[in-house]
UniProtKB/TrEMBL annotation:
The chain crosses the membrane at residues 34-55, 211-233. It is an enzyme of class 2 (transferase). Keywords: ATP-binding, Kinase, Membrane, Nucleotide-binding, Phosphoprotein, Transferase, Transmembrane, Transmembrane helix. Residues 262-344 form the Signal transduction histidine kinase HWE region domain. This is histidine kinase. Pfam families: CHASE3, HATPase_c_2, HWE_HK. It catalyses: ATP + protein L-histidine = ADP + protein N-phospho-L-histidine. Its EC number is 2.7.13.3.
Length: 460
């Protein structure tokens, strides 16, 4: 007998399981990929934040240093302008009082350099000069020009020996007022520069104040990234271990399936050998043919029950209706009809074989002596109540005869002994941990089979 091949349903189930595994593996790989990406983005964001923070702080401090240097140079230049005016005024008045021209040295030096000092002031302030600063620089230049013009006039009067005129010009309020306005303009420009320096210092201070909180946040972010990385590494290791375990389980399952198919094939071959031996044993004894046929039929019943559970594990289930249909199908015809009525009921693999033998005995009795022998009708009903399966085998119009009794028995006669068929069904009832009761009447035969329900929860 050729080896049995896996059914199309088994191939579809295996293919479906393979697809589910592939989808599950793909989903887990995607989750690991996204997790790694999240950790990478977190670390990258932390590093970018650190770089930006450091750059911002360094830039603020650099700007403050530059502003400090610029402000110091501007303030020094303003002092030089103020000192030039004061030195010139001191030299002018010393000359007027003493008529000693040596006092004019400081005056002459300041008069020759004050314009260059003002130009240098403009260069120091630069292109970022504000309107207020430009206005103050212009005023300083105008007032300086006026002050030095007034002092030039005084020196000229003294050179012409007009001491009274020179003194009168010095004592007038014009020179004093001009010098006061010049000093005030210089102070105002100094105040603006001090304000700019204070703003730069405040900006640098704010940047420094942001450093510690941002560094603390950065530390927390890096800690979270490290924790996530550790978790992902652990998860990846577990996933790899689970994948390896799943691969080993799949390989073991494939080996078990292969062994099960090979075992089923060998069991079928064994049944075929047994049938051949039984039939060959009857060749030289024609009178034993009826007995041999009954034995062969029972072996066929065992083979049918085995084929119903073929490829199923010990804990797997078989539907009761499928088992009944397998038992009666070889004998159905236009004159032999069976009515099946019941909800799906799951049977365990160890319940199928004894129940299959019982159904075979009842079917052959119906064909030889029962309802199907006289054109009657067979009805099989079943139900599950309180975890108890009840099967009712009803033959309408059947003669109450079994394979254990002669064909000429009447319905009212009681069997004088138990034959092999009765013993077989009694043994099957014990294997099912249930009972089989027959009710014989003129209207027909009614067999009640009861046993515990051991199928999948929720079925039946």
């Amino acid at each position: 007998m050729p080896p049995s091949l896996p059914s199309a349903t088994e191939d579809q189930d295996a293919e479906s399981v393979a697809r589910l595994r592939a989808r599950h593996t793909k989903r887990r790989r995607m989750m690991r990929r996204w997790g790694n990406m999240a950790v990478f983005l977190t670390v990258a964001a932390a590093l970018i934040g650190a770089v930006l923070l450091i750059a911002q702080t360094v830039e603020a401090e650099r700007h403050e240093r530059e502003q400090v240097q610029k402000t110091n140079r501007i303030l020094l230049q303003l002092r030089n302008i103020s000192r030039a005016a004061l030195n010139a005024e001191t030299g002018q008045r010393g000359y007027v009082i003493t008529l000693d021209r040596r006092y004019l040295g400081a005056y002459t030096l300041s008069r020759d350099t004050y314009r260059s000092e003002i130009n240098k002031l403009r260069e120091l302030i630069g292109d970022n000069i504000t309107v207020k600063q430009a206005e103050l620089v212009d005023r300083i230049e105008t007032l300086s020009d006026a002050k030095f013009a007034e002092m030039d006039e005084t020196v000229k009067l003294m050179d012409h020996r007009d001491i009274f005129g020179a003194q009168k010009l010095i004592l007038s309020d014009e020179g004093l007022e001009t010098m006061g306005l010049l000093s005030q303009s210089i102070r105002d420009l100094e105040a603006i520069e001090q304000q700019i320096l204070a703003q730069a210092t405040a900006q640098s201070t704010r940047a420094e104040q942001r450093v510690m909180p941002l560094l603390a946040g950065l530390l927390v972010l890096l800690t979270v990234a490290l924790v996530l990385g550790y978790l992902l590494v652990g998860r990846a290791a577990r996933a790899e271990a689970e994948a390896a375990q799943a691969a080993r389980l799949a390989e073991a399952r494939d080996r078990a399936d292969l062994l099960a198919r090979e075992l089923n094939h060998r069991v079928k071959n064994l049944f075929a050998v047994i049938l051949a031996i039984v039939r060959m044993s009857a060749k030289d004894a024609p009178e034993a043919k009826p007995v041999v046929d009954r034995i062969a039929e029972r072996i066929h019943a065992l083979l049918s029950a085995h084929e119903v559970t073929q490829g199923k594990a010990q804990g797997a289930t078989t539907d009761l209706q499928n088992l009944i249909q397998t038992a009666v199908k070889p004998y159905l015809s236009s004159d032999r009809i069976v009515n099946l009525d019941g909800n799906p009921v799951a049977l365990t693999a160890r319940q199928v074989t004894p129940l299959g033998l019982v159904l075979h005995e009842l079917t052959t009795n119906a064909v030889k002596y029962g309802c199907w022998a006289i054109g009657g009708e067979l009805t099989v009903r079943w139900e599950v109540e309180s975890d108890q399966v009840t099967i009712i085998w009803a033959e309408d119009g059947a003669r109450a005869v079994t394979s254990d009794t002669p064909a000429e028995r009447t319905p009212d006669a009681a069997p004088t002994r138990e034959g092999f068929g009765t013993l077989l069904m009694t043994s099957a009832a014990r294997q099912l941990r249930g009972s089989i009761n027959r009710d014989l009447s003129p209207e027909g035969m009614r067999v009640t089979i009861e046993f515990p329900h051991e199928g999948a929860p929720g079925e039946g």
